[in-house]
Amino acid sequence: MKTINVSLVGVGGQGTILTSDLLARTAALSGMDVKKSEIHGMAQRGGSVISSVRFGTRVDSPIIPEGQSDILVAFDRLEALRWAHLLAKDGKVLLNNVDLVPVTVSSGIQQPVTDFEARLAKVFPDALCIDALSIAEKQIGNARTMNMVIAGALSVLAPFKESVWLKAMAESFTGRKAKLLGLNEQAFALGRASVPAAGR
Description:
Elements: E1 4-11, H1 16-29, E2 33-40, E3 48-56, E4 69-74, H2 77-82, E5 87-96, H3 103-106, H4 116-123, E6 128-130, H5 132-140, H6 146-157, H7 162-172, H8 181-193
Parallel strand pairs: 1-4, 4-5, 5-6
Antiparallel strand pairs: 1-3, 2-3
Helix pairs in contact: 1-6, 1-7, 5-6, 5-8, 6-8
């Protein structure tokens, strides 16, 4: 199997790293060679976070070259634009319909992006968009499960069986986190269901 590159981008506190860990674990359980790397922004919450997951028959490096991401998973729309250069020409984009105002903008250091919607439409004309936060809040009742809604949508795009994703999730939620497994499984299922047939 050729190496598949997945870049997950967001800001601190959104669960980007947990989602990338779940993807890496699922790939490993599927018999793939897996490499993972991550970069945290300066702030634990609010700074940019990017995690790279590479899997295939043999993966030599955890670093995804610029313009080589087969899938770009954006936990918010501004980070999607920030990291658009990572996407391969024929890559797929999973875009969460959330806009977070960066600390640099809210503090007045930077000006907000103008023509935001037009830029998104131009850069990602074929993006698969989901309302993960809305699903987490309204259908699960817990905004913190947003990342598992995104993971569920990602599972439709990735070449792994749903059962393996669920096994990886069960292995991730152990100890004191075990009580959260059922809630996160619900979020995952809703994320899978949110992907329209055309995006599969």
